[in-house]
Each structure stands twice: as C-alpha cells, then as structure tokens.
Design brief:
Radius of gyration: 20 Å
Distance between the termini: 91 Å
Largest sheet: 6 strands, parallel
Strand order of the largest sheet: 3-2-1-4-5-6
Structural class: alpha/beta
Strand content: 5-15%
Number of domains: 1
Mean pLDDT: 81
CATH topology: Rossmann fold
CATH class: Alpha Beta
Oligomer: single chain
CATH architecture: 3-Layer(aba) Sandwich
Low-confidence stretches: 12-23, 203-207
C-alpha cells in the first residue's frame, strides 16, 4: 500500500495556520483602531502653530530598528538642543522584541517595545505615559511606517502641534508631509525642518 506524502497535508495545515494568524492580527488591529479613534474623539488639547525658532519643547517619536536611524535621531535631537536651545524628549519604538536590549538609553531617550503594549497595541509604560502628558510645543513622529502603538502615543499626546508623514488614515497630525519621492529618515527630517521654517516666514509676512 502506497501512502500519500505528508508534505501535501503539512502545507495545507501551514496555510490554514497562516490564514488564521493573519485574520487574528487583522481583528486585533481593528479593535486597536476602534479604541484609538475613541481616544482621538475624546482628546482635548490646545492647538498652536509653531516653528523651530519659537519652540521651547519638542517631542520626537521614532522607529528604533537600526543603529543608523537611532544615530540620526540623536544628531537631530542634539541639533535642536545645542543650536536652538530646545528641550527635547525622545521615545523609540522597537517593533522587533529581539532588539529590545540592542539600544542603550541615554539622557532624553527612552524606548519601549511590543512587550510593553497590551493585547490590542496600546503602550503600557511609565515613560510613554510621561511623554504623552507633556504639552510639547511640537511633537514629531519620525516613523516611516505606521505602527499602532506609536499612533496611540500621537493620538493621546497633548502636544500643541503634531507633525508626521502623509497618508495617516487617522488624521492624528496637524501637519502631514509627503515624502513618497524619498522615503528616508534623513530626507523626512530635512522636510520637517523646511516646512516648519515656512511657518516662521508666513508669520513674518502676516506681521
């Protein structure tokens, strides 16, 4: 008696597990989006336009995925502090739990990973709570991808001005910047600086 190869059944089982996993992830994400939209509707904050020359405090959110991106944010933070005298606080989101210990915290920098989020993606971390409660003059989301835990921070933040990448479906930002032609962190930061300097020029013209 010839038996059928197990590979066929194994592949079907794997496919079923993969589809189930994707469906579960999608359901969980939709639940998270529901809670986030509720948070956005309930949030009350004072909105103000601000440029980098008049800002006294800035919050930076970024995706801590590589040493290169981390170092670029460090340089940007130092530039804001040393050249413009701005108080800067940074939060890095580590989407890969395996990298949780790869980034060393330094003054003004904190990190959180998926391990510090609840089952539907909302961050549960004291550093994140402190960041959210700060009424920054400007909050910049430097993430090139959209992460639900980061969006919970942006949506809950009491910052006066929120800046992020275009195509945010939740309308969490006051200013959205299109970087489709060059989807890099360095270009994104350059464009943010350019757009915020335009606010200053516009204010001078109106004055």
């Amino acid at each position: 008696m010839i038996k059928k190869p197990l590979d066929f059944y194994d592949s079907k089982a794997f496919l079923f597990q993969a589809i189930s996993y994707i469906c579960n992830v999608s359901i969980i994400k939709n639940i998270g989006l529901y809670f986030l939209r509720s948070k956005l509707n309930d949030l009350h904050r004072k909105k103000e336009m601000c440029d980098l020359d008049s800002a006294q405090s800035v919050g930076l959110l970024f995706h801590a995925d590589t040493a290169e991106s981390y170092n670029r944010v460090i340089d940007f933070s130092k530039s804001l502090t040393e050249k413009k005298g701005i108080k800067v606080l940074c939060i890095g989101y580590i989407s890969n739990p395996k990298l949780a210990d790869a980034f060393t915290e330094q003054s003004g920098f904190r990190f959180f990973s998926t391990k510090k989020c609840n089952w539907y993606g909302k961050p549960k971390d004291h550093s994140v709570d402190y960041f959210i409660e700060k009424d920054f003059d400007i909050l910049m989301d430097l993430c090139l991808e959209e992460f639900l835990p980061v969006q919970f921070i942006v949506g809950s933040s009491k910052a006066k001005l929120k800046v992020g990448k275009l195509n945010n479906k939740l309308n969490s930002y006051d200013v959205m910047i299109d970087i489709d032609k060059n989807n890099s962190l360095d270009f994104f930061i350059t464009q943010i600086e350019l757009y915020l300097s335009m606010f200053k020029m516009e204010h001078k013209i109106q004055s």
